[in-house]
Structures are given as C-alpha cells and as structure tokens.
Amino acid sequence: MAKPLGLFLRGGSYSLRVMVPKDLQAQNAGEGGKPRTKLVVALGTADLREARLRAAQKRAEYETLFTVQRARLKPRSIQPTREVVTHLAALFRHELLSDDDRTRANPHTTGATAALGAALLLGAEPVHTKTTPTGHIVQVHALGAELLPDDDADPLAGFKREHAQLIKADHQRTLAGWKEDAADGRLEVARRAADRMAQRMGLQLDWGTAGARELLVTFQRSMIDAAAALVARGAGESVETPEAPAAQQVAAPARLRDALAPWRAAKPNRHAKTVRDTELALEAFEAFTGNPPLSRLTLAHGDDFRAWLLKQSSSEKTAANKFAAVNGLLNYAADQRGMIERNPWAKLRVNITKRTKGGPWALGEVATIFGTSLFTCYELPPQEKAAQDAAYWVPLLALFTGARVSELAQLRIRDLVLADSSAGPATLAVLSITDEPEDDEVGTFATATKTAGSVRTVPLHRELIRLGFLEYAAAIKEAGAAQMFPSVQRREGKGAGDDLSTWFGKYRRGLGITRPRAGIHAARHTMRTALANAGATDAQAFAIGGWSGARGPGNSTYLHALSPEVLREVLDRVTYAGLTLPRVFKEPAWAPKTNRVG
C-alpha cells in the first residue's frame, strides 16, 4: 500500500509532515520565534492503514487552523446586521455541538478536544500550539489547564467516569456563566465568540454602529441556548447537531469610493478635469478620515476635514473646491445610490473670506498684451504649452467672444459653421460651444462646458474675420485636422485650456502684468464690460458669453431664442480704445505629422 504524501517512519511509528503556507509561517513560529515552514506530527502508530486515517484527520485539523489564521490576517470590516448575526449564531451552535460530537465519538481524546474547542469558541487567544506525542493538536490558553488525551482508553467503552463528570461540570459552568453575563448586561464573552465566528468567514465586525448592541444581545441568547443543549446532552437527552449553515456572501460596508465609479458612469461626458479633481479630493478624504464606512461618517468628521483642508491647501478656494467635490460624492451616494440615509455633511461649506474677485484688463494692459510681436508679426512662442497657432488665436477669440479658454481650446473644425442672415443663406459665421462626447470616427476629442446653460452659438466678431480666422480654419481643415487647434495637448485629468492658461500666465507676467487674476480668463471679464459699454442687454450678454446667475432673464429657453444675426450686431459694436491690430496671419504653423489624426 503506497504511503500518502507527507507520511514517514520515525522511531518505529509514523509521523506526518505538514507544510505551512508561506503567508502563515510567522503565525506558526517555533518557541524561539522563528517562522516554521513545516510541522512534524507524530501519529503514534506503526500500522500504515491507521496512520493514513490519522493523517487525514490531522490534515483536516490543520487546514481548519490555517483557514482561521489566514482570516485573521486580512479581515474584511463589515457592519453587523440581523442577517449576519443570525448566520454567526447558527455557525456557533453548529461548532459547539459538532465539537461535542467529536468528543463523544473519540473519548480517548476528550481532554485535548475540550481544551481546543473551548479556546476557539470562546475567543481566547492561545498562548501557543503544540502537538502531543500521539499527534493531537493542543492549545494552551488562559481558560484552563492543558488536558492531554488518554491513549489507553477503549473507544467503545465511553468516557471514564472522571472525564464524564469533568465535561458535565464544564458545560454547566459555561451555561451558568453565560446566563450571569446576560443578567448583568455583560457582552464581552459574546463579542469574542461572535468575532471568532466572523474571523472564520474572513470578516471583522464593527460593533460601534447603531443597533449593534441589540444584535449582540441576540447572539448571546443563542449562545445560552447552545450551552443549554450541551447540558441536556449531559443529562442523557437527545439533541441533534444542526447542519453547518451555508456560506454567505456578506457585502462589505459601503465606503465613499464605492460611489465614484457609478458617479462617473452617470455622466460619461463629465469634464476630465472635474473627474480628476474629484478623485484627488477623495484621496484627501481617505487619507484624513481613515476611510470609514459611510454609516459611521459623522458631522464631526466633516468639520475636522474642513479645518484640515484649510490648513493644508494653498488657498481657501482650493480647500472649498475639494470639500465641495467630496460633498458632491456624498450627496450622490445618499440621493442617487441609497448607500446612506442622508449626507451628514449636507449643510457644511468652506467659507471663502479672502476671495479676490477677477476683473477685466485695463485698456493699458490690453494694449500691452496685444502689442507684442506675437500679435503684430505672428511670431508664435516655442513653448509646447503655447500650442503654436492657439497662442495667437485663443486670446483674440476670448477678447472678442467672451468664451472661456477651455471652450476655445477644445473647438473642432465642425464647430465653425455658417448660419443664415439677412444678407443671404449661410453667410453668418458662428462658433458652436458644445458639450459632446469624443468622436473616434473623425478623430475629435470630447467637448465640455462649465454648466448646461453654457451650450450656445456665438457669432464671429467682424474683427476676427478681418484678421483671417476663417482662412485659418479652412487651412487647418485642408491640412487634415479635426481639432481647430491640433497642437493643444489633452492631458488626463486636465482641462483643454489648462496648458494654454499656464503659458499665458508666464507670458503676461513677462510683460510686467503681475497683478493677481490678470490671466487669460480676464479677457472674459473684459468682454463682459465691453458688451455693457456697447449697450448690450443682460439677455444678449448672457447669450453671447454663457454667463449664469440670478441677474437678468436667466431662462435658457429665452436666451437661445435670440437670433445669431441680432447677437452679431451687438458683438460688432464692441471695440477696445487704442487697440489696432494688423492682419498678419498667412498660414498655420501646424502641419500634420505621419499617422497623426486631428
């Protein structure tokens, strides 16, 4: 008869070699603390058939032990629910009565089995694990003395009288102790037992949640019922051992990151910068709070997080944006996903007390910015972030349309269209500011607007036409581009105009314009002022620039009804005193590269 793997003869009897999984070797360290790669178990028999049976039992015992140890290493934290606690209580009863079954079926191992079972079920941490000369696993623990097996006992003769009395007394003492705990409201032993059952499932119970104490009381009652069943067996009554409850897939508690993927999927066209900013804000939230389950998130967490952001961030606005991003995710988790009953931070905000509002460029600044060789000779800057032709056209477009830099940098060739006017069909050039997904078929990137109301159609100012923008667009299209400014780099997590804004900031500071908020976005404020000076109504200004707010007739339906021809007449009244630009465009600096699309 072939020997099973791991069996070998030593000293006239068989032993079993059990290999310890690599991740558990430290858990099974020897007396000197050195991790063990294998365990040698003496089986106490020279008969190969008997050795095979005992080896199978030992392997099963060690597999159970390894499973428990592994579950302790990386327990999955969950909030206890009635279903979970009911399952754990059923598992506890099964384990307790099954252990008693094994004891009665193998009376010669009574002592060791009782000691091991008590330690595992009551949750006491063993001091160490050892194997007796006959191969039985024994754990020395704080609950009682080490009891060794009686190898001379006849398995058919039942318990020795002293062993039977010992077991009955132990069961009665256990039942009395648990009843006393229940009478006094003590739940520590019940918590240890429930935790031990949870660890076998690879779980860690969070007893700090609302209603957890009541559930633990329910578990304690089930423990008492199970102990009473053992006492009844000791009195000769017939008590069946229940089947092990079917393994349950217990859902992990919801955390804020669980809301991120569905939040992104809910609006696939969400601006890449918005997504990236939200991800960064979430990382900050997790780092500061320790990423608690949403059910444990409190108002105090929000107040502390807000204070931390204000201390860590470069400005109040940065802190406010990060806090708002996290709050937005919390609102989504509560209102759209039902992951929590309500957002506990709903009323919290980061107040900005030192905000410096942006304003228009002064006329002198306009003359300085547009008086350089970039605008008088079409000498494009070499920096990659300047994006070649975009460095010339985007600031001019911003100055004469009021559009945001991100709206202009993302323009596609097809966004420049001709509309009907009183001068004839298809004679009015307009720009479409859109919010649309990426189009792989034609090689265009996604477009986005700050708000839904910002989607609009803006006529081209006569000055842009005079300077050659229509010829530029036609040349770029002829060269095979799909994007209006193909040199603009689209970086993950960044807005289309971020690089241009960075370049322009250095450009204007190099011209001596160093005051705060005088970047390219100031062109938008400059245009808003110019529209007012030109006699534009609020409705006309909002329709051109896509501004939003409570002022004026903010009804998007009304604003979109304004004809492009009316808006063109308003735009053409916009002028900037002292600004005279020569027409210097001849051909685009951009040229297609091999295998380049758009």
What do these coordinates show?
This protein has 598 residues and is mainly alpha-helical. Helix content is 45%, strand content 8%. It has 4 domains: 1-73, no CATH class; 75-132 and 139-243, no CATH class; 256-335, Orthogonal Bundle (DNA polymerase, domain 1); 363-571, Intergrase catalytic core (hpI Integrase, Chain A, Orthogonal Bundle), CATH 1.10.443. It has helices spanning 48-73, 82-105, 110-122, 161-184, 188-200, 212-234, 260-266, 272-289, 299-312, 316-335, 363-369, 373-376, 390-401, 405-409, 462-466, 469-478, 498-510, 522-533, 538-545, 556-560, 564-571, and strands at 7-10, 13-19, 38-42, 76-78, 128-131, 137-140, 203-205, 416-421, 424-433, 456-459. The strands form 4 sheets. The chain has a 3-stranded antiparallel sheet, covered by helices on one side. It is elongated, with a radius of gyration of 38 Å. It starts with 6 loop residues before the first strand and ends in a 27-residue tail after the last helix.
In one word, what is the shape?
elongated
Rg result = 38 Å
Number of strands: 10
- The overall number of domains is 4
Strand residue content: 5-15%
Global mean pLDDT: 81
Order of strands side by side in the largest beta sheet?
A: 1-2-3
From the helix content, strand content and strand pairing, which structural class follows? mainly alpha
CATH superfamily of the largest domain: Intergrase catalytic core
**CATH T-level fold name of the largest domain:** hpI Integrase, Chain A
Query: How far apart lie the N and C ends?
Result: 75 Å
Helix count from the secondary structure assignment: 21
Residue stretches low in confidence (pLDDT < 50, at least 5 long) are 110-128, 130-150, 550-559
Helical residue percent band: 40-55%
Describe the largest sheet.
3 strands, antiparallel
CATH-scheme architecture of the largest domain:
Orthogonal Bundle
